[in-house]
């Protein structure tokens, strides 16, 4: 049998003691406390849940989600700058994006007409929210030329779009009740900003001389805008850009412009300008000079990262552009753009 010297025994005992001191039971600091007290680990704050993946068909709906959802949402818009939702067809990539979403927001009222079947299919397995479905039908426009359907461009009456904001707030609360208080607080701030924007639009457009309050655009997207803020709105095309403007339509509008001596007409960011150019030429041939008063945002917001890339900034741009072109006065002081509360977006 092998024997050990006293010195060797002491070395072995010392090594054992060193190993014991390095085990969790002997560590110094918070990790040692957690190891020696299993209950301490349970007191750690819970992990932050992943943001809700929200996909919006139009940027205006996505903007509501960003401002109300804050850091709890990751928003992606299918239709970006300059895109016409009336004509939009979903790509295979869009289908994958929608399939991966936790929540889908769409405007409804037949705006996304060519996506209707896809949205219906998604609703069978996803949280799908029509942001306009709580607006009182009595407040919706139903132009005779739209064959019994409502005008979908409700965002141009800011007071109606505030109702859509409340709808998004409630949908987020239903999806994520743990964050209810944050959604309520964010919505309260944002809806107050929309009330200020609504008042600004009314007061600013009221500075246009009454005889000049005629707004002519490429397609009939501004009916709610005119009704809310006191403008007579005329358009070459109907509510949907699916329809084609005829020479008869253009000539009839030329007659009105010449008769009323309308000084300006407007192009739209998401609609080709050829019909408006034809209108200008038609007036010129009749001895009436009409100018392009500027470009308006109708069915799509501006470029992401610009003021016009937000709903508030888009409306401010349109109000100021129309007011200046038709002889009104634009105030130097304007409603501030929302500071979106840490929203994640793509």
Keywords:
single chain; about 350 residues; alpha/beta; Rossmann fold; 3 domains; disordered C terminus
Distance N to C terminus: 75 Å
Number of strands: 9
Count of alpha and pi helical runs: 12
Backbone shape: globular
**What structural category do the secondary elements indicate?**
alpha/beta
Rg: 30 Å
Q: Within the CATH hierarchy, at the fold level, what is the topology of the largest domain?
A: Rossmann fold
Your description of this structure?
The chain has 346 residues and is α/β, with parallel strands linked by helices. The chain folds into three domains: 6-42, no CATH class; 52-203, Nitrogenase molybdenum iron protein domain (Rossmann fold), CATH 3.40.50.1980; 205-325, Nitrogenase molybdenum iron protein domain (Rossmann fold). Helices cover 42% and strands 12% of the residues. It contains twelve helices and nine strands. A five-stranded parallel β-sheet has the order 4-3-1-2-9, with helices on both faces. Strands 5-6 form a two-stranded parallel ribbon. Helix 4 packs across helix 7, helix 8 (180-205) runs parallel beside helix 12 (311-325) and helix 10 crosses helix 11. The longest helix has 26 residues, at 180-205. It is globular. The model is unreliable at 1-36 and 341-346 (pLDDT under 50).
């Amino acid at each position: 049998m092998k024997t050990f010297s006293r010195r060797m025994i002491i070395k072995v005992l010392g090594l054992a003691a060193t190993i014991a001191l390095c085990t969790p039971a002997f560590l110094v600091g918070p990790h040692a406390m957690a190891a020696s007290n299993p209950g301490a680990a349970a007191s750690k704050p819970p992990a932050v849940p992943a943001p809700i993946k929200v996909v919006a068909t139009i940027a205006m709906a996505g903007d509501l989600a960003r401002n109300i959802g804050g850091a709890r949402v990751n928003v992606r818009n299918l239709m970006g700058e300059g895109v016409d939702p009336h004509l939009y067809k979903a790509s295979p990539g869009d289908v994958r994006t929608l399939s991966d979403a936790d929540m889908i927001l769409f405007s409804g009222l037949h705006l996304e007409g060519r996506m209707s079947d896809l949205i219906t299919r998604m609703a069978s397995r996803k949280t799908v929210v029509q942001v306009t479905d709580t607006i009182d039908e009595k407040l919706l426009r139903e132009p005779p030329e739209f064959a019994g359907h409502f005008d979908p461009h409700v965002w141009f009456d800011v007071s109606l779009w505030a109702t859509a904001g409340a709808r998004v707030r409630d949908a987020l609360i239903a999806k994520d009740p743990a964050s209810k208080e944050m959604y309520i607080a964010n919505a309260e701030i944002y809806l107050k900003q929309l009330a200020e924007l609504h008042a600004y639009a009314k007061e600013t457009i009221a500075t246009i001389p009454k005889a000049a309050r005629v707004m002519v655009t490429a397609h009939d997207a501004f009916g709610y805008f005119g009704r809310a803020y006191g403008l007579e709105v005329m358009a070459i095309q109907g509510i949907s850009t699916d329809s084609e403007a005829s020479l008869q339509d253009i000539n009839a509008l030329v007659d009105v412009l010449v008769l009323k001596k309308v000084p300006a007409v407007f192009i739209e960011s998401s609609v080709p300008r050829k019909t408006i150019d034809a209108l200008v030429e038609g007036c010129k041939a009749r001895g009436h000079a009409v100018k392009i008063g500027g470009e308006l945002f109708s069915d799509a917001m501006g470029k992401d990262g610009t003021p016009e890339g937000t709903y508030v900034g888009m409306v401010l741009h349109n109000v100021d552009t129309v007011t200046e072109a038709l002889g009104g006065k634009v105030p130097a002081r304007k409603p501030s753009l929302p500071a979106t509360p840490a929203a994640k977006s793509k």
